[in-house]
Design brief:
Layout: H1 2-31, E1 35-41, E2 47-54, E3 57-69, E4 75-87, E5 93-98, E6 103-108, E7 118-124, E8 130-139, E9 145-154, E10 157-168, E11 174-183, E12 189-196, H2 216-219, E13 227-233, E14 239-245, E15 260-263
Antiparallel strand pairs: 1-2, 1-15, 2-3, 3-4, 4-5, 5-6, 6-7, 7-8, 8-9, 9-10, 10-11, 11-12, 12-13, 13-14
């Protein structure tokens, strides 16, 4: 009888463990469905950036900040600008329109590809003066950016070229961005950014499938960096360093860092 009771106990424990494992897998699936809604909190109820979705597609990015000061000296916050995203029929991004500074990005794709091989940033001033940034993009087998080569044109005349290389570690995190600026006047500038001290949690920017240029340093890492150092080297070998570090993030119940607000299914 004791042997039978012991066997029954072992079976119950095994079923309990299997049930818990199944719950963990479901929780992992649930985490992967979280999407970022807004980030960089300014006040209790206001964030610097808000992302607007339509049928799961990101269609607009709004920027908020200090718009004016009140009569009593208090700061008044409001919307500063917004960016609109236009899609192709296959849901790849065709165009991003930036209302601030009146410019836009156009994206070009190879057949059956979901990542752009070329970006053109075009700005037309009020007097009709046109500047254009043409950028060719290379990826690795995981569709992470490896290199961009860009030419800046001023009324169809090449002014300078920038080559940027991206380096990743074995944990699929972006370790370094190295940018070399070669203007025609010969005053080469090299900018190097190193990222480190990554956490083991999911990076919310990884799921944003819109190729915002200002997201590149965050959008290709599996986890969240907690330290970066930026250094610029000029022709005269003068360098300027910028250092940022945070000891740790706080996280929500799904394991996402609380510098943002999310929607989880």
């Amino acid at each position: 009888m004791k042997i039978k009771l012991l066997s029954l106990t072992i079976i119950i424990l095994a079923l309990f463990i299997l049930t818990n494992c199944s719950s963990d897998e479901n929780r992992e699936t649930k985490e992967s469905e979280c999407k970022i809604l807004r980030y960089n909190k300014i006040t209790t109820d206001l964030y610097e950036v808000q992302l607007i979705y339509l049928n799961s597609l990101l269609v607009k990015r709004e920027h908020y900040g200090n718009t004016a000061s009140g009569s009593s000296g208090n700061v008044i916050y409001g919307k500063l600008s917004e960016d609109s995203i236009v899609y192709n029929p296959n849901n790849t991004v065709a165009k991003i329109v930036y209302k601030k500074n009146n410019h836009y990005d156009l994206f070009f794709y190879e057949e059956n590809s979901t990542v752009p091989y070329k970006r053109e940033n075009i700005k037309v001033s009020d007097n009709g003066y046109t500047t254009k940034w043409i950028e060719n993009i290379k990826y690795d087998s995981k569709n992470r950016i490896l290199q961009t080569i860009g030419d800046y044109e001023d009324d169809e005349t090449e002014v300078y070229k920038i080559t940027t290389n991206y380096t990743y570690d074995s944990n699929h995190n972006l370790l370094q961005v190295s940018e070399i600026n070669n203007p025609l006047d010969g005053n080469k500038i090299e900018k190097i950014i190193n990222f480190s001290n990554f956490d083991s949690n999911k990076n919310p920017f990884l799921n944003i499938n819109v190729p915002f240029v200002d997201y590149r340093n965050r959008a290709y890492s599996k986890n969240n960096y907690r330290k970066y150092i930026s250094k610029s080297i000029y022709k005269e070998n003068i360098s300027t360093d910028f250092f940022w570090e945070i000891s740790s993030y706080q996280y929500n119940e799904f394991g996402y860092p609380l510098f943002a607000e999310y929607e989880c299914n």
